[in-house]
Amino acid sequence: MAKKLVIKVTAGADAPERCSQAFTVAAVAVASGVEVSLWLTGESSWFALPGRAAEFELPHAAPLPDLIEGIKAGGGTITVCTQCAARRDIEEKDLIEGARIAGAQVFVQEAMADGVQALVY
Asked: Which domain holds residue 58?
């Protein structure tokens, strides 16, 4: 098993099943003891803002706020893409507690580190 899992979510409410899968995999991995770095890009960037995850609905899926809390409680990191944040006028001060904004260089560093498995949804 990989020492760390880096997950990039490229979908939000525009592709709810894909979005939910990414958050679910991240939460399950954290609960299983895997170090997780969850990257929010594109429309998923909105879920790093307070209250936005509660607006997401998908039948038969775990609530997004619960998944996010599980990821954070288990030590997972949540990062919003720098360019995606800028296009949506999202600033670091706007984010949920524990989330950050970082760019492609940090993503590549994390994804290319030894023992890392990367997934894109």
From this structure: 4-120
